[in-house]
Input
Amino acid sequence: MPKTFAEKALARASGQASVVAGQIVDASPDVILSHDNTAAIWKIFRALGVERVKNPERLAITLDHAVPAPTTQHAQNHAEVRKFVDEMGVKNFFEVGRGVCHQVLSEEAIVLPGQTILGADSHTPHFGWLGAFGAGVGRSEVAALWATGELWLRVPESIKIEVIGRLGDWVTSKDLCLKIIGDLGADGGLYYSVEFHGDALKNMSLESRMVIPNMMAEFGVKNAYLAPDEMVFEYLAARRGAGSGERGAKGGIENLSRMNMKDRKLVPNEYEGSKIENDALYPDSDASYSASYTFDCSTLEPMISCPHSVDNVKPLSEIRGTRVQQAFIGTCTNGRLEDIAAAAEIVRGKKIAKGTRLLVIPASSQVLRDAMRHGYLETLTDAGAVIGVPGCGPCMGNHMGIPAPNEVTISSANRNFRGRMGTRDAEIYLASPAVVAASAVAGVIEDPRAVETFR
Output
C-alpha cells in the first residue's frame, strides 16, 4: 500500500514495518527538544518519581525565550535548567546567546532527514525543511519522554500542497505561507501532516525553505514536510563533519544556507553525506491524501497578516500606508542571514522614519557573526536600527521590544493574536523581513518594491 511521509516516518519511529493514518503508535523520537521551559518540565518529571532521564543523549536544550534573563525569576529558571543539564549529563545544551532552538539545532545538524523530533515548542514542525518529522507536544508529554523514551501518537492524515512557479522580486516564502493560511484558515491543517511538493521549492534557498514548515504551525499542523535534496544533504554533511560544539563557528564553515555554495570552506564529509542521504524518507508517488491544493508563486504579491489573527491575511496593496511605530525582524521564522541581508539592502543609505523604531535580532550567534562579517549590521545600525541578542526577543512578549498600548508593530514573526508581544492593546501585523524593513524606512506599511522612492 502506498505510503505518505508521515506513515513512513512514524513506522520507523515506532519500530514497525508499516503503519496507517489514524493508527496509534508508541514512537521513540531521535531528538527531544526543550528550552527555557525545561525547568518547568523537570518539576513534572520529578513528580513521576523517576530520578534519571532514560536517554539523555537524545535531549537538546537551549536557553532562548528570555535571554539574557530580564527578571530575577527568569534568571532563577535558567539556573535550574543548567542544574538539570549538569545532573543528567545532557550534552546538547546551548547557552544564552547561541540562538533560537530551531535555528540552532538546524545549524548543529542534530536533526537529520527521516528522523523524528518531538519538542516542547509549538514550532517544532520547523524541522520538516530537513525532511524530518517534527511535532510540538506538551510539557507533560516531554516529561514522559524523558522518563520512558517514547510517547504515543496518532499517525496523522496528510494534505498535499503543490507549489509551482517562481517567486517574484521581493516576494518570499513568507508571503507564500501567509497566502496558504489566509486561503485555507488557521485551523485548515489541524493535526494533519502537510507535504509540500513542486519544482518551485527547488528554486528556493534553504533559508527560504525553513520558513515554510515553521509557519505551518500557524496552520495547525502536526508536522510539515519538504523533500530533502542535495542542498540539504551537503548542508548537513558539512556540519556533521565539522566536529562537536558550535559547528559553523569552530569548524570555519561559512553560511551554507544559500542556494549558491561558493563561500563554503569545508568540504562535506563523504561518509556523513552518504549516510544522511540513505536515511531520508520520501512519500510514494501514488500515496493517498485527504486533500490536495496548488499554489502558484508567480502570481503572489507581498502579503500581510492583520490583527488579531494569523489567517486575517490581505495583499499588501490593500493596507499600504498603515502607520507603524515598531518594526521587528527576527524569530525562528525570519531571523536568518538571508532576512537580515534583505533588510540591509532596503535600508542602505536611508534612515528609519521618525517615530518608528526597527529592531533586528539574529536567530543565532552564527547568523550574527555572518551578518557582521558581511557588513549588514553596520548598514542597519547606520540607518538607526537596534540589534538584539540572538534569541526569541519580543516575539512572545518577554522583553526586548514590548510595544506600548495602541502602538502598531509590523513583525517578521509567526503570531499576532492579541497580547502576543506583551501588550493587549497593541496591534501586530505579520510580513516578510523585506516588507518590515521597507515599512521601518517609510514609517507606514510599505511595499519593498517601492524602496527607491523613500527619502
Summary: The chain has 15 helices and 18 strands. The radius of gyration is 21 Å.
